[in-house]
Design brief:
alpha/beta, 15% strand, 7-stranded mixed sheet, 259 residues
Length: 259
């Protein structure tokens, strides 16, 4: 399986915008969380049995305001993020390709269809970069499930899909419309080939407040059990002083961090 991770350059105003709008997090803090999540996700993908492809957005698909706030160019920013996440020998095996398309669904659809039809990949799994709790276990399990199913979906927070694996292309038009996991399932069911649909375990995404709270709580539970994992995200959460409040919303304690 080719594991495709669609990554935005970690620029203020571009990554995790809903968190900035609805929580105490600043744009700089959102960048810190995004970089941590991408690091843990890319490491999990590299440790799995799949080949890793980082599908990056460039200036043609990035809003002008975000592009102006960024430093350097988009491809360099993503390559530097991947290089910092992996050992040099592991980073050398990662492929980088630019995203093409006017919407998220179009960009994912173009990549998946190209890999299945032109590169003749047996299976392609699209792994969102905002699910730091994902591990090799889930990815290898999804790859095994794709031997029995044509499409495998991994449900996430608020009806999102953190993973979508394919052995056959589907109609990707508006396929990621909310709720994405349901919409993708409907596209699979509507396929003329009557594709078989399977599911991966549910995992939260830090792209939403509820998903970030679930991630923080799970990290704390794992630490209590002596199974920390996802070291980069755990460190970012501690650095930013993030906790889950009694009303199940994100809280931030005072720290020396200027973010």
């Amino acid at each position: 399986m080719i594991v495709v991770v669609p990554v935005d350059p970690p620029w203020p105003g571009l990554v995790l915008p809903s968190l900035v709008e609805s929580t105490p997090l600043s744009e700089s803090a959102a960048v810190t969380l995004y970089e941590a999540a991408v690091t843990d996700v890319v490491r999990a993908a590299e440790q799995s049995g799949g080949d890793v492809l980082l599908n990056y957005r460039d200036e043609e698909t990035i809003p002008d305001a975000a592009a102006e706030a960024g430093t350097g160019d988009a491809e360099t920013a993503v390559r530097e993020l991947a290089a910092a996440a992996l050992e040099p020998t592991d980073a050398e095996t990662v492929r980088f390709e630019r995203q093409v398309g006017s919407t998220h669904a179009a960009r994912i659809g173009n990549t998946v269809t190209h890999l299945l039809e032109r590169d003749q990949a047996d299976a392609v799994g699209v792994l969102e970069p905002t699910v730091p709790l994902v591990a090799r276990t889930e990815l290898d399990g999804a790859a095994m499930s794709l031997r029995r199913h044509d499409v495998v979906l991994g449900p996430s927070s608020n009806g999102r899909a953190y993973f979508a694996g394919f052995t056959e292309p589907i109609d990707f038009t508006d396929a990621y419309e909310t709720p994405a996991v349901s919409t993708l399932a409907k596209r699979t069911a509507a396929a003329e080939a009557d594709l078989k649909l399977g599911f991966a375990p549910m995992l939260p995404t830090i792209a939403t407040e509820s998903g970030l709270c679930a991630t923080i709580a799970t990290l704390e539970a794992r630490q209590q059990a002596g199974r920390p994992g996802t070291d980069t995200m755990a460190a970012a959460v501690a650095e930013l002083g993030l906790t889950v409040g009694p009303d199940e919303t994100l809280e931030r304690t005072e720290t020396d961090n200027p973010f």
